[in-house]
């Protein structure tokens, strides 16, 4: 039997967590980390937060764009503001990156903040009233035919 790696789908989507948790239990793995590292966490019943480690990037170096159901975070450091020096060891990667996340239907970005080298993007799932489940009242009378309704 073939095994499918669902990790890329699980890591790059927000709002599908129940589905992917079930599929993960069936048998999915986790691939190694990629640049930049990030976390996706649930902060409430229908609220999420994506935290991306962006050490060395300023607010001007980062951009966040939402188009349809795709969230794109880009980082592009301009080397002009850095002084030239001999780096003996470079463990802090500051290369250009682009990270994409596929958002579930009705997931909206509510804000973003940059603190302590982490870019936090807050999301909330707002289901419109027309799409929410609703209760249907059950009529207490027995079944009626069309003729009985017209006569009444």
Identify the notable features of this structure and list them briefly.
4-stranded mixed sheet; Immunoglobulin-like; alpha+beta; 4-stranded antiparallel sheet; 33% strand; 152 residues; 3 helices
Please give a quick description of this structure:
The chain is α+β, with helices and mostly antiparallel strands and 152 residues long.
Can you give the helix content as a percent range?
Answer: 10-25%
* Biggest sheet details: 4 strands, mixed
Category by helix and strand content: alpha+beta
Regarding CATH, which class of the domain at 36-133? Mainly Beta
Q: Which segments are poorly predicted (pLDDT under 50) over 5 or more consecutive residues?
A: 26-33
Mean pLDDT across every amino acid position = 77
Radius of gyration: 24 Å
Number of extended strands: 8
The CATH architecture of the domain at 36-133 comes to Sandwich
Look up the CATH topology of the domain at 36-133.
Immunoglobulin-like
Number of helices: 3
Shape: elongated
H/E series: HEHEEEEEEEH
Strand content: 25-35%
How would you portray this structure in words?
With 152 residues, the chain is an alpha+beta fold. It has a domain at 36-133: Immunoglobulin-like (Sandwich). Helices cover 14% and strands 33% of the residues. The protein contains three helices and eight strands. It has helices at residues 7-11, 17-27, 146-151; strands spanning 13-14, 38-42, 47-53, 62-67, 70-75, 97-103, 107-115, 118-125. The strands form two sheets. It has a four-stranded mixed β-sheet. Strands 2-3-8-7 form a four-stranded antiparallel β-sheet, with no helix packed on it. Strand 7 and strand 8 (118-125) form a beta hairpin. The longest helix has 11 residues, at 17-27. The chain is elongated, with a radius of gyration of 24 Å. The N and C termini lie far apart (63 Å).
């Amino acid at each position: 039997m073939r095994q499918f790696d669902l990790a890329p789908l699980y890591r790059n989507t927000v709002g599908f967590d129940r589905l992917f948790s079930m599929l993960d239990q069936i048998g999915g793995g986790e691939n190694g980390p990629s640049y930049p590292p990030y976390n996706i966490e649930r902060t409430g019943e229908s609220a999420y937060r994506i935290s991306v480690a962006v050490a060395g990037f300023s607010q001007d170096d980062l951009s966040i764009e939402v188009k349809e159901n795709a969230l794109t975070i880009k980082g592009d450091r301009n080397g002009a503001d850095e002084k030239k020096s001999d780096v003996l060891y470079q463990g802090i990667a500051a290369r250009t990156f682009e990270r994409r996340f596929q958002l579930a239907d009705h997931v909206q970005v509510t804000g973003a903040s940059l603190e302590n080298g982490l870019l936090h993007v807050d999301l909330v799932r707002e289901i419109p009233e027309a799409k929410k489940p609703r209760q249907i009242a059950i009529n207490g009378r027995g079944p009626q035919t069309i003729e009985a309704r017209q006569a009444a």
